[in-house]
Design a protein that fits this description.
Layout: H1 2-21, E1 32-33, E2 40-41, H2 43-56, E3 62-65, E4 79-87, H3 89-94, E5 100-107, E6 110-118, E7 123-128, E8 132-135, E9 138-140, E10 152-156, H4 157-161, E11 174-178, H5 181-189, E12 195-198, E13 202-203, H6 204-216, E14 220-222, E15 237-238, E16 241-244, H7 246-255
């Protein structure tokens, strides 16, 4: 089965990227700022990117990575690897164990397979549309809550610190601040939380691996207006996303959308 081969390649690449990052110590690593927003980048990000590119990319496939200069050439391919070699670099720099390596395989705009490896928490979430999702080898699925009552929702730690989640005070769900976008999506896909969302822009490399896992686990990833993302766009910036079981997202959009 071709998808089994894809998953084997994803697993190999995740583990090799983790090995490339291992020499660098979270909380004690030098970094540069790569944008006007002060986003950090470390030698660990670049080492992991090189490993992922070498293992994942084959002839006839496209490539989109946070740490590789983008090329419109990827738009010509139906199969595209969308990766974040170290999602949550800020957490990595600060020594917070909420960072991960994220890989998504997109076919004809749809995330069909993916993997998220969190070395700090020893969690490997791997899956595809054909095989479902596993957490460290054990089958899992997203939560089946019908609404937000009692749900655990993971929020961006930076958004939470800025007070953007204060609007949900008194809500029937619990909000927990957490780091990396991909890490949060992996937790939801693995059934360790009920949902996560952000109403601010994120890039496809932040989301594609987690989106593949959400779909494979029976969950949903959509924009705030209810539309579904077609991945491998010329502009990889996404306006927002919501990720959870579809009935839970319906409750959010009908009753809790700011």
């Amino acid at each position: 089965m071709a998808r089994i081969d894809d998953l084997a390649r994803i697993r190999e690449a995740l583990q090799a990227a983790a090995e490339a990052i291992q020499p660098f110590t979270p909380g004690a690593v030098e970094y540069d700022e790569k944008s006007s927003r002060g986003d950090p980048v470390t030698a660990a990000d670049l080492a992991a990117d090189e490993v992922l590119h070498r293992i994942l990319l084959s002839d006839g496939e496209g490539w989109l990575s946070e740490e590789t200069a983008d090329s419109p050439e990827r738009l010509q391919h139906r199969r595209v690897w969308v990766v974040d070699p170290l999602d949550g670099t800020r957490e990595f720099v600060d020594g917070i164990p909420e960072w991960c390596v994220s890989i998504g395989l997109v076919e004809d705009g749809v995330p069909v397979a993916g993997g998220i490896l969190s070395p700090s928490t020893n969690q490997l979430v791997l899956g595809s549309m054909e095989t479902g999702v596993t957490l460290n080898g054990d089958p899992v699925e997203t939560g089946l809550r019908e609404d937000l009552d009692g749900a655990l929702i993971l929020a961006s730690r930076s958004e939470w610190k800025r007070g953007e989640w204060d609007v949900y005070e008194g809500s029937p769900f619990t909000v927990k601040p957490c780091g990396s976008v991909a890490f949060k999506l992996g937790q939801v896909a693995a059934g360790l939380a009920d949902g996560t969302w952000t109403l601010v822009p994120k890039n496809e490399w932040d989301v594609a691996g987690g989106a593949a896992l959400m779909l494979a686990a029976g969950g949903t990833l959509m924009h705030a207006d209810g539309s579904r993302r077609r991945f491998n766009q010329a502009d990889p910036l996404m306006p927002n996303f919501l990720a959870a079981h579809e009935s839970l997202l319906r409750d959010f959009r009908e009753n809790w959308m700011p």
